[in-house]
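ok so for the tutorial part 2 we go from a plain amino acid sequence to predicted structure tokens. step 1 is just haveing the sequence, like this:
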Amino acid sequence: RVCFTLYGDGAANQGQLFEAFNMASLWQLPVVFVCENNGYGMGTSADRASASTAYYTRGDYVPGIWADGMDVLSMREASRFAIDWCGSGKGPVVLEAATYRYH
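step 2 — the prediction. this is what the tokens look like for a chain of 103 residues:
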């Protein structure tokens, strides 16, 4: 069993997220942290709000992967990888789904 938890790129700079990364890593929890990156958080461009916009790399001790959030097949394969990773006891993983606010 694997838990998927989702948050937007606007929440990616909040301390609670890094605390959750830390606890999930310490306890090797099977959690997929999905960052829905649409490039904006409450109207502010990610480039203006984040020193690093490669959200999948920000887990430090939690590995991450990037996927095209506008491509259902890309998301399916990235989700499969994440489920296999977590399900095999390797702990949490960050999955960044790059999407766009208006399409």
